Structures are given as C-alpha cells and as structure tokens.
C-alpha cells in the first residue's frame, strides 16, 4: 500500500460522497493530481472540513493502492489566498483547467509553483487577464503544447509587421489580415513576439492573446465548455 505523508497540496475540486464523506481532487507538488476520498469530514465532529476548500496551501497525507486514495491527515501550510469577485472566479478557472487537462499521478512541480504564484497575483490585481494568460502559456508548455511564438510552421521568423493564422498543434501560418476567416483567429506578429517576452502592448493586444488562448484550449478540451469561464464572462 502506498502512503504519502504531509505533501504540499491544494484542493482543486470536491463533491459529496454518501452522507459524511467527500471526493477530493488534490493538486500536489510531487505527485501531480490525486483523487482521494475524505471519510467522515462532513460530520459535526470533523476537525478538517474547514480546510477542504480551494486556495488554501495544505500539507496532505493519503494512502491506498487504487486510483482513489484515502485522504489522511491534512493541515494548513499558510494562509488562504484572499480572492473575491472575478479574481475568485479566475481561481476556479485555473482549478477547472488543471482538473480537465492534467492526468492523474503525473507530477508537474513547475505547474504547481506557477499555480501558486498566479494565486498570489490574483490577490493583488484588479485586472486578472495578464495573470491568466501567463499561467495558460506555462501550462501549455508543461503539458506538451508549448507555443512557438518566434517562428512560423515553416521555420521563418515571426515578423512584427505581418499577420498569422494559428493551426492547431502545428503553429502559426503567415496570412493576410483580411483573410476570409474569423478575424479573431488572426494574430499580429507584433503581439505574438511580445507575448513570447511575457509582454502586452495594450488592451487590444491582451484581448487578441486571450482569443488565441481560448482557441487553443477549446481544442484541447474538445470544445466542452468550462463552467468557470461562463461565470467570468457574465
């Protein structure tokens, strides 16, 4: 039987199981996404129920020998990230992406740290868009879909004064701005090069990169909608 003791973790998602238990999706530093059952935590005597919430840094223990592990001792490993309004919904968006895109038991320590840093950013910004785009970029790179933002699919350098269409899982193809396709699928070379350097020229550039990332993630998610995204857009 595998047993892990006090591993850094965050709660991604919970749902009720029978009368007093919860099914808990954890995102852990060294073990990736783990599915667990937290037995008895909904009872009046449970001392850990208040910790089984998103955005609290935890130390979690679990054991078992199947896909569904048994959650053991948990304790706080810092203060909860203070998120509200659209910043809170953005946190749920991050969680939903991780649940949908990360395979179980596949360690991603870099994504774990990027997630933690993004939660910290969401505490302190009014406009969440930059923090979300940078996290999405890192997530794509770590799960094998990193963007080549300096060269097109033929190996030619992206030119700041040109426009490009993105072909899923291949890359950027130079095109005319007035190409007879959805204009939200055409991206300026200037904005792509800036995004490579984690920069955004202005609000319109940020909006353009948002369309790019949505286009890519919709494909990876088989065009199945994200509940959190629908809430953010209201």
What's this, in brief?
With 234 residues, the protein is α+β, with helices and mostly antiparallel strands. The protein has a domain at 2-76: OB fold (Dihydrolipoamide Acetyltransferase, E2P). It has helices spanning 85-101, 109-124, 129-142, 189-196, 203-220, 227-232; strands spanning 2-17, 21-28, 32-38, 58-64, 68-76, 163-167, 171-175, 186-188.
What value does the average pLDDT take? 91
How is the biggest beta sheet arranged? 5 strands, mixed, barrel
Task: Give the helix/strand class.
Answer: alpha+beta
So, CATH architecture of the domain at 2-76?
Beta Barrel
Query: How many beta strands in the DSSP annotation?
Result: 8
The tally of helices reads 6
Description:
It is a single chain. This protein has 234 residues and is of the alpha+beta class. The protein has a domain at 2-76: OB fold (Dihydrolipoamide Acetyltransferase, E2P) (Beta Barrel), CATH 2.40.50. It is 34% helix and 26% strand. It has six helices and eight strands; from the N terminus they run βββββαααβββααα. It has helices spanning 85-101, 109-124, 129-142, 189-196, 203-220, 227-232; strands at residues 2-17, 21-28, 32-38, 58-64, 68-76, 163-167, 171-175, 186-188. Strands 1-2-3-5-4 form a five-stranded mixed β-barrel. A hairpin with a 3-residue loop joins strand 4 (58-64) and strand 5 (68-76). It is elongated, with a radius of gyration of 20 Å. The termini are far apart.
């Amino acid at each position: 039987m595998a047993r892990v003791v006090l591993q850094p973790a965050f709660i991604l998602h919970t749902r009720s199981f029978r009368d007093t238990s919860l099914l808990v999706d954890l995102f852990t530093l060294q073990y990736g996404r783990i599915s667990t059952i937290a037995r008895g935590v909904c009872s009046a005597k449970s001392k850990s129920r208040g910790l089984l919430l998103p955005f609290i840094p935890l130390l979690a223990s679990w054991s078992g020998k199947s896909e569904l592990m048994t959650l053991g001792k948990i304790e706080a490993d810092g203060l909860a990230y203070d998120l509200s309004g659209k910043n809170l919904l953005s946190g749920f968006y991050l969680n939903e992406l991780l649940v949908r895109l990360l395979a179980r038991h596949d360690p991603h320590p870099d994504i774990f740290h990027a997630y933690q840093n993004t939660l910290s950013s969401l505490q302190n910004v009014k406009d969440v868009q930059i923090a979300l785009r940078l996290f999405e970029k890192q997530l794509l790179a770590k799960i094998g879909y990193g963007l080549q933002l300096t060269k097109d699919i033929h190996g030619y350098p992206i030119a700041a004064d040109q426009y490009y269409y993105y072909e899923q899982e291949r890359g950027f193809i130079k095109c005319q701005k007035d190409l007879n396709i959805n204009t939200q699928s055409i991206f300026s070379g200037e904005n792509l090069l800036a995004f490579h350097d984690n920069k955004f020229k202005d609000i319109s550039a940020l909006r353009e990169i948002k369309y790019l990332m949505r286009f890519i993630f919709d494909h990876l998610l088989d065009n199945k909608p994200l509940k959190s995204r629908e809430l953010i857009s209201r």
